[in-house]
């Protein structure tokens, strides 16, 4: 049984239903990426899996229990989330921010313990941000900031990490830097990671499993090599494309041709 799953999930905002009757099982110790067109419910699903957004009906199961029945601290000790646009108080140092990941283990009457300090040091080392510990967030590059926010989630000591568009606003170099970190967290530390990405080729390259969504429904799920096809891209994205073999990693690579609303003329014509 998957440690994180959902059954017959219905989620929305006020009267608007975004996800209707969705079932998912997140593969353990793997990187799963949710992809789909804008507005299909990717981030909504991630927020619901993290208990940030309560479902209208259905159940999110964490280690076999309805996540809404678990104590907030218990959830925070098991599951960490990096939202799409995290914010921090001005002037906060990297070490202070990462230290906030230890709050689920602290009491109101107890200061940070040696165990907390060790967890922060380990999170900084894992994300290659130890040298930045005394710098403020506003002094960092985009890629450095994203690694620091991931360090905050790691300091929680959770095995499950949910990352909502961790490469947003990053150039390709910094995006690869963050996704290489995600890959190493899975390979070297056995983390279960679910993330939302817009870049399809990066999603294919860095994922063990894909959840493909459209209009609040799960269109397809499974390993990229068995999921990505010309037909799937047409169905889910309205995208005309060719699928070739990635010359570096050997998996599928998507070469966009255009959409149904416009025809791109090849350079040779």
Automatic annotation (TrEMBL):
Ion transport recorded as keyword: yes
InterPro entries documented for this protein: AAA+_ATPase, ABC_transporter-like_ATP-bd, ABC_transporter-like_CS, P-loop_NTPase, Siderophore_ABC-ATPase
GO biological process, alphabetically ordered: iron ion transport
Domain ABC transporter: 4-240
Name this protein carries in UniProt: ABC transporter ATP-binding protein
Principal localisation: membrane
KW Ion transport (keyword) present: yes
Gene Ontology molecular function terms on file: ATP binding; ATP hydrolysis activity
Lineage, highest ranks first: Bacteria, Bacillati, Actinomycetota, Actinomycetes, Mycobacteriales
Source organism of this protein record: Gordonia desulfuricans
Places the protein is found: Cell membrane
Keywords tagged on the record: ATP-binding, Cell membrane, Ion transport, Iron, Iron transport, Membrane, Nucleotide-binding, Transport
Membrane topology, from the record: Peripheral membrane protein
Gene Ontology, cellular component aspect: plasma membrane
């Amino acid at each position: 049984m998957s440690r994180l799953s959902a059954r017959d999930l219905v989620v929305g905002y006020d009267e608007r239903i975004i996800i209707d009757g969705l079932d998912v099982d997140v593969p353990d110790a793997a990187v799963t990426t949710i992809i789909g067109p804008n507005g299909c419910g990717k981030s909504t699903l991630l927020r619901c899996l993290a208990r940030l957004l309560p479902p209208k009906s259905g159940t999110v199961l964490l280690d076999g229990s309805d996540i809404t029945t678990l104590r907030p601290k218990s959830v925070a000790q098991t599951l960490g989330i990096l939202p799409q646009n995290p914010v921090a108080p001005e002037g906060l140092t990297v070490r202070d921010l990462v230290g906030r990941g230890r709050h689920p283990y602290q009491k109101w009457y107890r200061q940070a313990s040696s165990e907390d300090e060790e967890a922060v040091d380990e999170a900084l080392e894992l994300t290659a941000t130890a040298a930045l510990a005394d710098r403020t967030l506003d002094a960092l590059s985009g890629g450095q900031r994203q690694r620091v926010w991931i360090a905050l989630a790691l300091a929680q000591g959770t095995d499950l990490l949910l990352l909502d568009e961790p490469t947003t606003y990053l150039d390709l170099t910094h995006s690869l830097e963050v996704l290489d970190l995600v890959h190493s967290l899975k390979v070297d530390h056995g983390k279960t990671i679910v993330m939302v990405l817009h870049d399809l080729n990066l999603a294919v390259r860095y994922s063990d499993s894909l959840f493909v969504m459209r209009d609040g429904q799960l269109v397809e799920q499974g390993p990229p090599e068995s999921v990505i096809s010309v037909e799937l891209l047409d169905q889910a994205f309205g995208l005309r494309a060719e699928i070739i073999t990635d010359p570096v990693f050997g998996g599928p690579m998507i070469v966009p041709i255009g959409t149904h609303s416009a025809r791109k003329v090849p350079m040779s014509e």
